Amino acid sequence: MHNTTILFDLDGTLIDSTDAIIESFDVVFKQLGLNECNHNKAKSLIGYTLEDIFLKLGLKKELVPDAICKYKVHYRKISLSQTSLLPYAKEAIQNANSFAKIGIVTTKMAKYITPLLESLQIQDFFQKDINIIGFDNVTHPKPHSEPILKAIDMLNADLNNTWMIGDTKLDTQSAYNAKIKSVGVLCGYGNEQEMRKYTDFICHNSKEAVSFIKKFKK
């Protein structure tokens, strides 16, 4: 039985769905008759909830529910064809699985993750209701501690031997709030300086992060 547990974020940590996300925002802005979406700002917000992103992109609060619905409709149509594994992600998952319990903690809807994992051929490592926590599984998403604590409970993991790997401050802050260790990775959308507010450990990608954790535990 593995004593170590590693929780992965998805977007920017294991997968690249940038094109699908940005295209979906563009479609929503066009359908609502708004000015063009600021792509750079939208990319910097990936990892937040859709509600938070739309508000930070300047939408009026009363438009957000409709915007979220329109976003989901388009994203579901294109996400599988426009999402890929990041370099070294599969190696990271395989290595982590060899010495640790593993799971996913994300702000994506859990019910949409399984088809995505199947498309990327990593479904054997992650299964809904076993080791995946998504936005629809919690009341308070990252950076709150709830998603991580729920994953720890689901996996019957040891809090003191659990790590979070993610690419934004939402991941490292959530880990900090849950009182676990984390590794920030630079292969996604986050800012290193922001991540370092909540962790001392930064790696280039998830493969390096897993190798670091494996050595750290010895």
UniProtKB/TrEMBL annotation:
Choose one Gene Ontology CC annotation of this protein and give it.
Answer: cytosol
- Record-listed E.C. numbers: 3.1.3.18
- GO terms under biological process: DNA repair
Q: Which GO terms describe its molecular function?
A: phosphoglycolate phosphatase activity
Which Pfam families has this protein been placed in?
Answer: HAD_2 (PF13419)
Query: Per UniProt, which keywords does this protein have?
Result: Hydrolase
Q: What class of enzyme is it?
A: hydrolase
The record's PANTHER family line, in alphabetical order, gives: PHOSPHOGLYCOLATE PHOSPHATASE
Protein name listed in UniProt = Phosphoglycolate phosphatase
According to its UniProt entry, this protein's organism is: hydrothermal vent metagenome
- Classification of source organism: unclassified sequences, metagenomes, ecological metagenomes
